[in-house]
Batch of 2 targets.
Target 1
Amino acid sequence: MKSYRPQEIVVEPGVEESPIYRNVKRAFPDLPFLSSAETGVLTPPDFGAAKRRLFLQRHRGEFLKKCPGSDGQVCCNYFVINFASNCPMDCSYCYLQEYLGSNPALKVFTNVGDLIAEAGEMLEKHRKFFFRIGTGEITDSLALDPYIGFSAEVIPFFAEQPNALLELKTKSDCVDGLLGIDPKERVVVSWSMNPQRVVDADEHDTASLDERIAAAKRCQAAGYKLGFHFDPMVEYDGWEQDYRNMVERLFAAVDFRRVAWISMGVLRTTPALKRAMRSRFPSSRLPTGEQILCPDGKLRYFQPLRVSMYRKMLAWIRAAAPTTFVYLCMESREVWEQVFGFIPACEKELGSRMTESVAL
Amino acid sequence: MDQEIRSYCRSKGFHLHTEARWLGYNEADRSALLEMIREVRPGENHFKDLLDWLDEIALRDGTPIATLLQKELSGVVTDPRLGRNDKLKRLKEELRRLRFPRLAGIEDEIHRRIRNLKLPRGISINVPPGLEGGGVGVKIEATSQEHLRRLAADASRAIDSDEMKQIFTMLDSGTAGT
Ligand code: SF4
């Protein structure tokens, strides 16, 4: 995978004592570190350029948020921690192009102590509940880890929590910083998976499929539970062969009995995201699929097509990982019923099924 | 030609982005779009929709927009029997068919099977746009209790028919059973 190297680093005065700042300084000793007091708040000229200027700043407000899900879709009751905003990689379909369109700066929040204090308070206050918490909603959980060392700061905290599970979701292979820490069954490292053909065409600067599988294998050997997100699934001539091979290769390399969960989700865009894709990645063929506008405002492959994709994929997964919990991401109740023959009664039911599946 | 494009855009109050997008195509595409515009005279939103679909088909099939408009769609655009509104409607239908060939094929097949049911007036069967939702809507409108009884019996026969079974199979997986 291509390593990340920003052109410059902009630092908010007062964050120099944070471990994140020290790690970044160590990782990029030769890069200019500018003070935001002098530069002011620089608005990056465009989304791609924004990825090349790294901001280190404090996060103001709450770190923990309930995952917003999508209107009318079955949700899995998940919390997110935003420790950074935007991502150093550059997938053509990335929803951040729309979501962060007006504020695309690549920021890392340095006040990890506040994050841990906030999470600790919530978990302590609600010991009767079990929380699944992810860090990959508006960034990739691990792509910046070699430079910022975020995981080494938070994993030891989550490893001690009796009522939480931390999911680190990535398309990178940046796992070195995790391997020496004992996750004590409290951390799931998960990968978003796609055949190499999709990686090459649309997941720019991410780890290759082989690199993702190798990194997963290393994490499993180090005691981490794994998760896999076959998301976004892309339909093209020959997709069946590619996805089937990928599933088979993956489960030949990792032990499915230590896989916490697998999700499936087809490519989702919106009209605004499609416009951003057209302007930033004009040769991407993703927007040319037979995607229609669904009631939640997202474009997906029309229902009979995506149901048939999910059923095929589920059969390949079941053949390779027969007992692993599989769920659909951002899908309607009708599609759940068609694919699995049941609909989770509520988001709590889906969440608790996932939690049970981790008690491996 | 570019002057004519600009004047059309100004006369219709198109946003400068839309004008720039049109002017950004190669000469053959610009000119084919202009010919189409002269015949159909769409407003900006319709024009942008047409451009989106044309762009996507061109990218997917490697067929230039000019070819699409002059070969695949010229029959509609130049049909003298159609007024402007009908031309636009038909053009969008034809373009949707090219843009979503499998979806359109399934929808056509479902509608064909609905017609085969030969339902009497008073019963209508609808499938959702884009087949999203996977359900079939059945509406019965009767003018008397006896009429309702007859329609319910007709609906019941339709429910048990092979055509109805195939409609649900297509909604479920996109393919008809054997
Ligand atoms: S890895 Fe995720 S967050 Fe990063 S660009 Fe790709 S889709 Fe966006």
Target 2
Amino acid sequence: MDFTFTEDQLLFCESVKDFLQGEVTAESIRKSWDTDTGRSSALWAQMVELGLTSMLVPEAQGGLGMNELDFVLLAQECGRYALPEPLVETVLVATPLLASLADNDPRCASLLEKIAAGEVMIAVGHAANNLVCDAHVADYLLLPKGDQVHLVAKDQVVLVAQQSVDPSRRLFSVEWQGNDETCLASGAEGVSLLAATLNRGALGAAAQMVGLAEQMVAMSVQYTTDRLQFGKPIGVNQALKHHMANCAVKTEFAKAPLYRAAYTVTQDPARADFAVSHAKVVAGEAALLAAKNSIQSFGAMGYTWECDLHIWMKRSWALDKFWGHAGFHKNRLHQWLLNPNAKIGAEMTFGEQV
Amino acid sequence: MDLSYTPEQIAFRKEVRTWLEDNIPAEPLQSFDTEEGFNQHREWEKTLAKGNWGMVTWPKEYGGRGCDLVEWLIFEEEYYKAKAPLRVNQNGIFLLGPTLMEYGTPEQKERFITQMASGEEMWAQGWSEPGAGSDMAAIRSKAIRDGDEYVINGQKVWSTRAVFADWVFCIFRTDPDSERHKGLSFVFVPLDAPGVTVRPIPQLDGLPGFAEIFFDDVRVPVSNRLGGEGEGWSIAMATAGFERGLMLRSPARFQETAKRLVSLYREHANDIMDLSIENAVVKCFMDAEAYALSTYQTASRLIKGGTIGSESSVNKIFWSELDQLMHETAMSILASRAELLPSSPAAGDVGDWLDGFMFAQSGPIYAGTNEIQRNIIAERLLGMPRK
Ligand SMILES: Cc1cc2nc3c(=O)[nH]c(=O)nc-3n(C[C@H](O)[C@H](O)[C@H](O)COP(=O)(O)OP(=O)(O)OC[C@H]3O[C@@H](n4cnc5c(N)ncnc54)[C@H](O)[C@@H]3O)c2cc1C
């Protein structure tokens, strides 16, 4: 029993954090809003260079062969810096789905090599999401149809752009026709792949929301220290202190469920639905509370386009509803817990181990 | 990260389970806030001590087993699962014990830890005063040096189980001219010493769970002081860290309550009209689980040499508010029977939810109120301005 990350995992996370801090700023994010795609191929190339896109690509396809647990802290940092690029979706969602299919389908193996090398981008659709993120910059799309998973080239689909409250998010509805050729999996296999995909998507969203929450609190602490009213920093007032302390408590207690979910996805998939839903619900609550208490701390300034807070706030609003909204995930928790055969109790925290 | 138990840990769990099955009193004990119940619980502490189960994390020479914190968590899980009696000496074993290990002289450890571990000596905590609650630095009771002794005068209040305990660990002002955090010392006083008067204060349930303690020229040897003279505040803060942090409220306690809440909900699901109750039940369960996960995380970190600081304030808020929500939810499920004492003929399956509900009201007050904890989090963990 050891509920800590390894030195290597922590060090790698620190180096990625340094990288993101240097490259992804509120200013660079605002600039990207005015570009056509909203995405920077230069930044993507740097991330490829750092090996980020190859982390979960199996070694057989030239990747690092790591797992979701190795990436979860990085996903948290992607949230903290509100990274617009689809790194989390590429690493946590597209890559493992292709890896599950690579043994049977050479197309998938080849795409994995290209993901590692930064030569292709893949967007993933799922019934839990009405829309597909970043389909405009993708070369291929992985799309569900009933119990089937299809791989469709970008020129075989029609994309209709939709506008999100978060200018960094680029969402599309996709019109497409699959055929036998594009179908990678179906039946029980398809169902289980789609279920695992949902869990990984939700895990990635949860991790980002923990990072978003912490960053909003950090911004509010700074602002309430600098802003004076009644001749004192507004942060001396207990009402604001308690707003922030409440966020800290919520965020802190979202972390252990998040890391347990990441571990469970890699080690104990039979328990993943429940663990992921727990993480997604509490991370969403933490991010939404941080957004609400932060805008309150900023006053009218927080209600402006000029103030950077909205970059983080809007991402939180969106991710809380993506890869399964709270209602979906709470429902899974209810079904799991209220089932008369549920194995629950203090000694069952990590499942039945005898 | 490896969230599976080792074969040794699994074997340890079995050993705990078997011992508890063989030794737990067949009849539930009376409340430890009555004299008879207190003595029953004292006997149980002695039984635990005989099996070396009193404090598994303590070194063997003090009657412990030298267990690490993960084994301690396993012990606690089995303990609450088995519905073993509450720990009457918790002020001693969970608060003073760890403080003594850190700050005690070899003689003090030998003298006090051994007796505490064997269940012979029960401890109370004497910090609060009528004028010093949240503002503990306002303590006025004095212990003035006279040769090898301190002469103590003053008053403590809200001292839990002091009515029946043997000793009290106090904070007194040893420098009469000092102010606030300076000039305080950590001193042990036997509750049967001449000049000590203990007056019971009934709690919400009518039982004398609190006491007021008056000190009238009470003399104790200087060797009853823990740490240096004037170091009382910093030692007390370490004790408070244990209180809020890890030891006092292990997650298993809340997980077992959450489990009972799920059963209560299942039994009454068909009569429940308030649709928000099901959500509350699930939230309680998940929060108890999150507290357990987080504690395992902290335990793993501490085992690897990490430390715990203001995070203990985050913990304290979380477990105390969880405990409130769990009991509020149970009250909602019991609906019109919620007010009934278990002795009432129409009580049915109310069990001890009402007792738990009342006690849960005190969680956000004791061990430093939750308002004070939120101040600590904002100022020390997050760095918000004090002035
Ligand atoms: C069940 C129980 C057991 C206890 N056992 C012991 C024991 O064994 N030994 C012992 O020494 N003490 C014990 N206590 C006492 C406990 O430590 C105090 O109750 C606690 O420190 C609060 O002090 P107070 O009750 O005087 O409340 P006060 O300090 O008067 O506070 C009353 C209210 O005002 C709020 N408040 C006060 N100051 C501030 C501030 N600066 N900012 C915001 N809000 C503030 C508080 O949060 C609280 O809500 C126990 C208490 C309880 C309830």
